[in-house]
Fold these 2 entries.
Entry 1:
Amino acid sequence: MMKRDRPERPERRMHLGAVPYGTGGPGSHTLWLDPEIPGDASVDIDWFTDVAQLAERAKFDLVFIVDSQFITPYSPPHYLNRLEPLTLLSALAARTSRIGLVGTATTSFNSPYNLARRLGSLDLISRGRAGWNVVTSGDAGTAANYGQAEHADYDTRYGRAEEFVDLARALWDSYEDDAFVRDRESGVFLDRSKQHVLDHHGEHFAVRGPLNLVRSGQGHPVVFQAGDSEQGRNLGARVGEGIFTHAPDIPSGQAFYDDVKGRAERLFGRDPDHLVIMPGVKIVLGDTDEEAREIEAADNERDHTFQAALEEFGRPFGWHDFTQYDLDAPFPAEALKHGERSFYTQAKAVTERATANGWTLRRTVEATRQFRKSEFVGTAETVADKLVEWWHARACDGFNVGVDHPANFRRIVDELVPVLQDRGVFRADYEAETLRGHLGLPVPVNRYATTG
Ligand SMILES: Cc1cc2nc3c(=O)[nH]c(=O)nc-3n(C[C@H](O)[C@H](O)[C@H](O)COP(=O)(O)O)c2cc1C
């Protein structure tokens, strides 16, 4: 159990990420109607650049690009047509200078050498600002896009993820930092003793190495993780340096925080401060608390109609079609089997809640709509109070702020961030050059280095 009452480190800072959802992510089916959002925002590099530059002006730690590779006609607008994260982030690297650049990449449908190379390249292009959100792909349908009959089960895909991350890190150490001598006098380009072959033969992969790339100033890209199952939490606790999650309130945030940091410390001997936990939050600002609540209610009503919620409801269940059932019959618990290789943790939680309460399908879908009410709605002062309360209570170390309506995000930057800065919890300016520096994470020592 973590000690919640341990003294605050004087340098502890709140961390902020911006998560752009283009034309609208899950539950935001009508965001694209906002006249300020270009109809093709999710494939428009200028739109992403505007968001990233605004977030950088506000000294955010990072911008985070989520991803998936399986769609249906019911997928949210942003998912239907969007840029590949690492390609997008490479362009943002050239148009920003300080903000961290984090992208989702799956370990289920990539090879370690190729992905380590692409992430390492992003890290060099951005001069040490890259981050990798390691996922195993919850959308089971992705398998069919890679010539596979079905998605691997949880143990297999998380086992692959464990080996994959270890391999990527080993490949990033292929060259010691002083391997390239480049001495014009002697004509020595490389100190060959400082280039290392991996020669890995494991359960899932065989990789010889070395990777043809040096390390950036931050050593390795920062590894983030977002799985919630037992296997996912253990992966996060062992290899995660940042954890993305969702928490509806402070007690559940604290329970997750204690659990994952406790696992990191207990099972893997890690310093819990070297793992930054950032739940995603929806922030709605208004001139008064009442006005902000009204904006939130109107947004929710418009963005997530019952029909849209019903159509999207099947995603954790392997995109099972729930429109085929009688809405007023008991919740069809047998549908859970369709989620076994998808977002099973989520599908199981929904099914158990519906069954325990004896809900109909209609009531269950309604519950997912009500769940959308956020704690972070009000004036800038009100929302700052809430964010600080969560952070002080160690329900998290920071927040991933969803970027929805541009006017709302501008208010977050112009009104909310200054309040957090005045209260001394959020940086007034960047103190570091790299993402690792922003997050207070150590630079990993090269495993082959023999000297300081
Ligand atoms: C905040 C957050 C962000 C996530 N981002 C992605 C993502 O971009 N792509 C993806 O395939 N899965 C994403 N996931 C899903 C998880 O990584 C994981 O695959 C899924 O939750 C199913 O595994 P689990 O049962 O271990 O949680 C995200 C989850 C959370 C909580």
Entry 2:
Amino acid sequence: MTVSVAPLSSRQGLVNWYRRNRQRSRALFDLIDPDVYFTRPIALRNPIVFYEGHLPAFSVISFLKRGLGRAGVDERLETLFARGIDPDSEQEAVPRSGAGTRWPSRAAILEFARAADDEIVAAMERAEFDLAGREHAAMADGEAIFTALEHEAMHQETLLYMWRRLPYAHKRKPHDLSYELGAAPPANQRIDIAAGRATLGARRPSARADRAALGAVVPFGWDNEFDALAVDVPRFDIDAHSVTNAEFLEFIAERGYQRRELWDDASWEWREAEQVSHPAFWLPASGSGADAWAWRGMFEEVPLPLAWPCYVSQAEASAFARWKGRRLPSEAEYHRAAYGSPDGEEREFPWGAAPPQPAHGNFDFQSWEPVPAGARPAGASAWGVHDLAGNGWEWTASEFAPFPGFTAMASYPEYSAEFFDGRHVVLKGASPATAKELIRRSFRNWFRTNYPYVYAKFRTVSS
Ligand SMILES: [Fe+2]
């Protein structure tokens, strides 16, 4: 049976992607010291051991079980490794994540992973798929395969921002480590974006024949990407560059963290409770001014790179924007700045229609760290706005909510629905640790507004 699941024209394409994913995941786990394997680098997340079991377990559950209706590989481990956690606070994290869980040894997990990989690859190579989804709804248009593949790629980003929290002594530093520091930060200009239409979301693969329907057809999208939604966006202006560490230093120098009026109630409560006084990616150093801070690099401290984007929580980004007399963009404004154009056309990527290449942005694991704002001019949008897809996710002010026509996906029904709770906001774009396969216009990321660990930058707008 021939399988045609665009953009992969063959079963071999699926297998190659799966193997590429697995190799990268293995390399990430091999970066860290066995001593910290059972620790929890971020108190709000599971211990490291969970993730190495979770990746194959999830692929078994979504593809083999839900997609093909088959038995799993190891029922006990698939149950243990089924779900991650996202509590609001550390107090909440302990009971939910099972502090008393007895985790298997790494050897046992790797053995389970090998067995799961064998079954999954064999199924990708030989299983009969009903791409119409008549037999198993989760297999319609190959959904369950992509669910497994994209889930693993997304977790690689989770792993990397988690590893960043580990002490340097517990990570193996690569021999060829280097940084792109740039000279001075770019002068930030504001760019006018004319009023116009933004198309959020996408058309379902099954809508391929419906030519009148709105938006691009994507071969796969997560449930929160459907259906397409047209939004008329009034004129606004936006920063050409994401806010840099240099700009954020000024906010700190002007006591932005101490000024109650810059923070909404929930953010202030978090700031007070956690005693937040600087970005989680910064470390106090011994000097003054810029020298008072260092960058918390993946493998070592780096003198604060002034031209790099400032990675912060949405709460901190919002306080900065308010301090400037501005605000964060809505999801629709992000779309307009990234994919809109003065001639009214909407692009597939900020730079046009070409598939993502390294020149377009800092993504797809090109670098362990950010690069200076504006360092990938070939990736600028039609309006000249830089780094909208790459070098760090972009926080928006928009609550993570379903588009009209949302239905939970059969291969992973709990993916989005549990997070439509008014406590998460949308992020768009990509970070250095985002796989190129995940870069598409309709892709939506989301986090709590007070989550400070994700590789997320921001810029400000004004109406
Ligand atoms: Fe997961």
